[in-house]
C-alpha cells in the first residue's frame, strides 16, 4: 500500500535556527495536512491544503511558520526561527478530501530544539 | 470551537481484561474516526462511523457512535499486549474534510 513519505525522520536544531520538513503524500490525494503532536497528546492541525491552496491555516503561527505545496503534490513546512517550545513530532497526512475520508499519516519528523 | 474529550487519559491493564475508552463532545460531528498510534509512528485508522447509533466490530474491538453523534466509545475485549498504544478519536464536521483530534487515551496492556 502506498505511504505518505516524510523526511527527515529526526531533526535536532538550535534555537533561532531555521528548519524545514518535507512531505510526499499518497498519489492522487488532493488534501494534505500538517499536524503538530506533543508527546502523548493528540495531533493539532497546523495547516490544510486542497491541491496547492491553503484552506485552513488558522492555527499556524505565521510569524515563524510557513508552509507551501507549490505544485499540489509534495509540501514543505518551515520554521524560522525555531524556539524551544517547537520541540514536537510534526506529522503529515493526506486524504482524498471527501467527507469522512480517512487520513493517511506519515511516520513524522521528530524535532528537538536545543 | 469544537472539542473532543477522551477518557481515561491513561489506562494500564492486564492481558485478558476488557476495557472501554470514551470520546465526548458538546458538538455534533458528521463522522467520527478512531486511530491507533504506536510510539515513533503516525496514527493508523481503525474505523470510521457516520450514522448515529452505529456499531462496528473489528475482531475484538467494538466501536459505537452515539445517537446524537456527539460521542463515541471503543470497547476492547480480552486485551492483548499488542493492543498497547495511543488511541485517538477524531471528529469530522467541516466541508473541507478537516478532522479535530482528541488528546488520546494511552493504553498499556501488560502480559
Describe the structure.
- The complex is a heterodimer of chains A (114) and B (111).
- Chain A has no helices and eleven strands.
- Chain A has 114 residues and is mostly beta strands.
- In chain A, strands 2, 4, 5, 6, 9, 10 and 11 form a seven-stranded mixed β-sheet that branches. A four-stranded antiparallel β-sheet of chain A has the order 1-3-8-7, with no helix packed on it.
- Chain A starts with a strand and ends with a strand.
- In chain A, 0% of the residues lie in helices and 48% in strands.
- Chain B has 111 residues and is mainly β.
- Helix content of chain B is 0%, strand content 53%.
- Chain B contains no helices and eleven strands.
- In chain B, strands 2, 4, 5, 9, 10 and 11 form a six-stranded mixed β-sheet that branches.
- In chain B, 37% of the residues are buried.
- The model of chain B has no long low-confidence stretch (mean pLDDT 92).
Instruction: State the order of secondary-structure elements of chain A, H for helix, E for strand.
Output: EEEEEEEEEEE
- Gyration radius of chain B, to the nearest Å? 13 Å
Q: Outline of chain B, from the CA principal axes?
A: globular
Main beta sheet of chain B, described? 6 strands, mixed
Per-chain topology:
The complex is a heterodimer of chains A (114) and B (111).
Chain A: E1 5-7, E2 10-13, E3 19-24, E4 31-37, E5 44-50, E6 53-56, E7 65-68, E8 75-79, E9 88-95, E10 104-105, E11 109-113
Parallel strand pairs in A: 2-11
Antiparallel strand pairs in A: 1-3, 3-8, 4-5, 4-9, 5-6, 7-8, 9-10, 9-11
Chain B: E1 5-7, E2 10-14, E3 19-24, E4 31-37, E5 44-49, E6 55-58, E7 61-65, E8 71-76, E9 85-92, E10 99-101, E11 105-110
Parallel strand pairs in B: 2-11
Antiparallel strand pairs in B: 1-3, 3-8, 4-5, 4-9, 6-7, 7-8, 9-10, 9-11
